[in-house]
Amino acid sequence: MMFRAQSYTFMPNMQPDYASNPTFPAPRLVSLLLPVGILLCAMLAGTQPLYAQSGSAAGRVQLPDLGSSASTLIPEHEAKAYSRYLLSQLRQYDYVLDDPLVEAYFQDMAFRIVAVSDEPDRQYLFTVLNEPSINAFAVPGGLVALHTGMILEADNASEIAGVLAHEIAHISQQHAARRFEAAQKMSVPLMIAAIGLILVGGTGAIAPAIMGTQGVAMQQQINYTRANEHEADRIGISWLSAAGFDPNAMATMFNKLGRASRNFAIEVPEYLRTHPVSSTRIAEAKNRAASMPQRVVQPSLDFFLIQARVQVLTSKRPEQALQAFRDKLRKDDSPLPEAWLYGEALALQQMGDYDQARENIQTLLGMNPTRLEYQIARAQLELDAGNTAQSIDQFEILYRKFAGNRTLGRYYAQALLKTQEPELAARAGEILRNDLLVHRDDPKLYELQAQAAHLAGDDIRASSASAESSYWRGQIHDAISQLRRLNNRDDLNYYQRARISNRLAEMQLELEQLVSLGYISATADTG
Q: How far is CA 67 from CA 64, 70, 76, in A?
């Protein structure tokens, strides 16, 4: 994968978990991180260790009361900035799985849990990363991410909800800040950067940069304590039950991953490296779940449809996914074979077998004619098959029926843009502007808006949207450069110039803040 020279020369790079996770995101980003690793190791050489590396009780950090100064060690505005820009950089390097249906499903699941948490108004960012490893992570500031490998490993929706609940609890209880309660001498940018660096530094080319310094000690110091893990389990299981999921699912997922770690033919899942599982912990999770109100949670077709979609989107070859679904359809124990038929249709569509895919989708619509996933699949199939007018008609009906649906707006706009017709592009622009009123942090929507404005002949709006897309992908220097060029045009009217000038001032102020925090450089890196 080739990387462009980017503006970020110092950022709390790129591993977002609290705890030691030596393989993410190597090898794809290890070359980007190496210079930062050398810099940080030099800075850490004189850092006072937080606690002795011995296993004695005296060497362990005791959890402070929740009323401690943990919340001031990492100020909330700095933590949020870190989460937001880490997400933008993950987008920049194509880690984020760009699929609105998948994204919307897991965001809805996560916010169901947040709604019953102790802080339902707390701001979070939820995303899905296209990573085959079995992992999930959370960082101070509210970013929670699922790897696609974790999604494919789950047997039901409650197991993934349990992972999300556990990660949300880590953020809610400020476990990262509490682990650094004794590190007042370390500056906040350095501390957060050390977290990010050390978590990726266990293997590959970056390891020598850490070995031989107190970075080794730091790696031990940022591991979750057992108390952290058990606290996140207890709180997460309570939220899991309150949100209507099976509270036993957290224990079943831990048990499943634990069995994988005992099978020497299978590499230990990354989630177990950051969240070690013991028989005692599993037993405690089961006992905690048993104290919750018991309910029968039926298998979720929604989950299995999304899981099938993830399997197709992440397969190296659609033929592999197709065979996997056909194998599942031959089994009598498939929980919801409808989902595997859906997955088969998507795989056939990717292979270009539109006739067979169309037969599958028609069968699915016969089984459930009102299900939105099947209706979207039908319209998207016709678009891919070259029946653009038919696809537009189908998306138009759906868009009117499900007004305000973000997923439909994006698909409908893409279908309109495929015609390359200015009038239809203008219509796409209207749809995207409405979506951006609610989802103003989506770089893909801005990218589509830029295409729509360009086709419609509105170069000013196209340039502005392009700048926003760059901004939300973490390319703030590029975004500022685009807005400066736009602001220098002599054909802007008063309102356009005022809007562009105000946005440019906002970005410049934010750049100054990020530079002062030590997250990025003051000028773009020209490589």
A: 8, 8, 15
Name the 3-class secondary structure at 144. Answer: strand
Contact 438, 406 (CB under 8 A): yes
Residues 396 and 399: their CA atoms lie apart, in Å, by: 5
Domain ranges of the chain: 69-290, 303-517
Rg from Cα positions in the chain: 24
The amino acid occupying position 7 is: S
Q: Report how far apart, in Å, the C-alpha atoms of 258 and of each of 148, 254, 269, 405 are.
A: 19, 6, 9, 39
Sign of the CA dihedral running 190, 196, 199, 204:
negative
User: For 453, phi and psi rounded to 5 degrees?
Assistant: -65, -40
Q: Where are the beta strands (DSSP E) in 303-452?
A: none
Helices (H), 97-206: 100-115, 148-153, 157-172, 175-179, 188-198
**Paired strand residues for 137:** 145
Residue 347, CA distances (Å) to 106, 315, 350, 363, 390 in order: 22, 9, 5, 16, 21
pTM above 0.90, yes or no: no
CA 359/CA 357 separation, integer angstroms: 5
Run means of pLDDT, 10 residues per run, the chain, 527 residues: 31 35 35 30 31 32 34 69 84 90 96 93 93 86 92 95 92 63 44 43 33 40 60 89 93 80 58 70 85 85 97 95 92 81 97 97 96 97 97 96 86 97 97 91 95 97 97 94 97 96 96 82 69
Task: Considering the domain delimited by 303-517, tell me its CATH architecture.
Answer: Alpha Horseshoe (1.25)
The single residue listed with the structure tokens 């998507």 is 346
Round to whole Å and give the CA distance between 448 and 427: 12
Relative to beta strand 125-129, strand 136-139 is unpaired
